Amino acid sequence: MANVRSVAIVCGDGIGKEVIPVARDVLCLLHPEYELFPVEVGYERWERTGEAMGDDDFALLKSADAILFGAITTPSVPDYRSVLLRIRKDLDLFANVRPVKGDGFDITIVRENIEGLYSGIEEVGVDRATTLRLLTRHECERIARFACNLAGNRTLTIGHKANVMKSDVFFRDICLHEASVAGVNCNDRLIDALCLDVLLHPASYHVIVTTNMFGDILSDVAAYLVGGLGMLPSANIGEHHAFFEPVHGSAPDIAGRNVANPVAALRSAALLLRHAGDIPGSDAIECAIQTVFSRGIKTRDLGGSVGTKEFGDAILYELGLAGA
Ligand code: NAD
Ligand code: IPM
Ligand code: MN
After folding, report:
1. CB of 271 closer than 6 angstroms to any ligand 2 atom
2. Is the CB of 36 under 6 A from ligand 2?
3. Distances (CA, A) of 52 to 56, 91, 177
4. H or E stretch including 112?
């Protein structure tokens, strides 16, 4: 649990500008004492200023007790370094936690968040391009312990590709060792088979720990279980900082039309409150989402016809009724 007083609000690009205001209004309602301050980073800032994030912006993010982030568009230019990846690395947000909950299943994907194929150690030549898949013992142990702690008396599943990559033999064995030290019930599966089995038998999984890129892919796959990318939140957790964002991106195909589903952003705010120790506030957001759904109020991706803003208004109304 962290003491939260100041929250940096980053809308970012595309639908980030539509879904984050919905989540921000809910934080304002539940915690009027929070100091919420906007920070502009992303593609549009890059287009305007030639810089996606300034040192001042990064310092502001660093100063906040928590960060609520929308999504940013990655420009397709060579040498562009993803702002999101820089923030994760420079704030040492080593664990990316992605809960996927539905009828009869409760899965948490724990993704190693700063190494693996995201090491940034790359070389592009004329005839050859390489990306180094770096896994250090320190990060493998840290993410394995984090996942074991989260699993408690539930089962931990390790997702890997140890049949092909020695680096994943290393990762799997460290995770198995940490689980045995922690007394956590643990099994392991090859990541490709795991991607399908999670969809076929979601109730068989509790906590899944995996490397960076596999976790990225697995979480988008698992979104299928709960109605798509508009539904899944995430928490990027470090020892000193915490950063909350939807799993989805900036969705340029639907941006600016008030059709994006703000549930992933709302659930990210709920994870922020859980991190701040406000479990009732966090539960109230989830409860409001369920009540609004039960009235048939849904965005287009879920088969409804309600706009982003109108969905947000319905949530605020429910939370108001619940006495928030
Ligand atoms: P995306 O997640 O933005 O969209 C994938 C599909 O899901 C699209 O059809 C989109 O319309 C739909 N979708 C996503 N969120 C939705 C929502 N809330 N409601 C309804 N539909 C939703 O992925 P993409 O299209 O592959 O990437 C677009 C851009 O976003 C790229 O530049 C990518 O790099 C970036 N991206 C950023 C983040 C981030 O900042 N956290 C995450 C993923 C992708
Ligand atoms: C995510 C995104 C990011 C990732 C991109 C935008 C760098 O897809 O948060 O899932 O690959 O981690
Ligand atoms: Mn992703």
Report:
1. no
2. no
3. 12, 17, 41
4. strand 105-112
Distances (CA, A) of 78 to 68, 75, 89, 115, 124: 28, 9, 20, 21, 10
CATH homologous superfamily for the domain 1-93+240-324 = Isopropylmalate Dehydrogenase (3.40.718.10)
Decide whether any atom of ligand 2 lies within 6 Å of the 247 Cβ: yes
Q: Strands 95-102 and 66-71, how do they pair?
A: unpaired
Angle, helix 308-321 to helix 16-30, in steps of 10 degrees: 10
Q: What is the pLDDT of residues 110-144, one digit of tens each?
A: 999 999 999 999 999 999 999 999 999 999 999 99
Residue nearest to atom 22 of ligand 1 (CA): 230
Can 1-93+240-324 and 95-237 be said to share one CATH topology? yes
Q: Where are the domains of the chain?
A: 1-93+240-324, 95-237
Q: What is the pTM of this model?
A: 0.97
Q: What is 95-237's CATH topology?
A: Isopropylmalate Dehydrogenase (3.40.718)
| Nearest atom, ligand 2, residue 216 CA | 10
Q: Are 129 and 229 spatial neighbours (Cβ–Cβ below 8 Å)?
A: no
Do the strands 242-246 and 105-112 form a parallel or antiparallel pair, or are they unpaired?
unpaired
pLDDT tens column, 215-230: 999 999 999 999 999 9
Instruction: Yes or no: say if 95 and 240 are a contact pair by the CB < 8 Å rule.
Output: no
Q: Which of 252, 234, 254 is nearest to 244 (CA)?
A: 234
